[in-house]
Amino acid sequence: MGAGTERPRDPYRRFDLPGAQPIADLQQPVLICGRAEQGLDLLPDRSVQTVVTSPPYWSLRDYDIDDQIGRDDALADYVKSIVMTFDKVRRLLTDDGTAWLNVGDSYTSGNRRYRAPDRKNRARAMRVRPPTPEGLKPKDLIGGPWRLAFALQDAGWWLRSEVIWHKPNAHPESVRDRPTKAHETVFLLSKNKDYFYDVDAVRGPNDRRLRTVWDINTEPRRRDDCGVEDHPAVMPLTLAARCVAITSRPDDIVLDPYAGSGTTLLAAHALGRKWAGIELNPAFVDLIERRLGQWATASP
Ligand SMILES: C[S@@+](CC[C@H](N)C(=O)[O-])C[C@H]1O[C@@H](n2cnc3c(N)ncnc32)[C@H](O)[C@@H]1O
To answer: Which domains does the chain carry?
Structure first.
């Protein structure tokens, strides 16, 4: 979507939890401030065509707010909480609906119980790091994305694709005993065996059908007018827009239950879809509202 095809801003409704009433329809976009687990209960059955989301990764970042997921001591509890949230997502999906789940992997802490801030990425500090999960060793790659994928499969989801989001501009790492990590995983899950997938919506290089490795640069962290950094883990707009374009049609409803800075919502709007977003941290909900106010510059 280029600058010449900008769309006027849709009015949206904001709800703050707890205390919000169920929402009868999603014809107008909605932004919910609160826990995904609660916000999803407000939305109507079979209303959402596709989900594009990136929950907090286990033990990787601290979003500095109570009730955030990803800070659980036990990896199994983290997996269980995402699966429970995705059970709620299934109720909301249309019968031919899908979910794109972006998750990155990480390493066990080697029993260090604290991670100092990375100068380039302050949110990578953890006040308390969880112990090494049972069955893993210090320095082991955890395999978090696949543990989650298997659990979702067991819970009834169809696991349809593993996309490797390759980051050509990945930061160097100060490790000398393994390759530098330069990718994350994006799973495509479907509610049923058959689902809506527009194979021609996005083409790969040389107009070939899309392959499972996507080269997309990460976007630099932005600062607001006061020099304050915004969200620490923003998904590139190109990635969100690609997922939205493939598994939804114009006017369909796109959901992100861990909306962060609202990238999925922005992509949905730019592509003429309706949207619903849930985010726990009120500071990020404010950031989403600021980004919504800048629709005209959205250009996936
Ligand atoms: C990886 S970030 C999402 C970033 C987003 N894709 C973007 O482009 O900005 C995950 C978000 O989930 C939020 N979060 C953590 N626990 C949550 C919960 N229980 N319910 C809703 N949001 C939660 C965090 O505050 C964080 O903003």
So the answer is: 3-297 (3.40.50.150)
Pairs from 9-15 (Cβ < 8 Å, separation ≥ 24): 9/269, 9/292, 9/293, 9/295, 10/269, 10/274, 12/275, 12/292, 14/285, 14/289, 15/39, 15/42
The most distant pair of C-alpha atoms in the chain lies apart, rounded to whole Å, by 55
> How many C-beta neighbours within 10 Å does residue 253 have?
26
Global pTM reads 0.90
102 lines ligand 1 (CB under 6 A): no
> Residue 256 CA: which ligand 1 atom is closest?
6
- Rg of the chain in Å (alpha carbons): 19
Tens digits of residue pLDDT in 104-137: 999 987 665 555 555 555 445 555 567 888 899 9
- Confirm if 59 and 130 have CB atoms less than 8 A apart: yes
Contact 210, 203 (CB under 8 A): yes
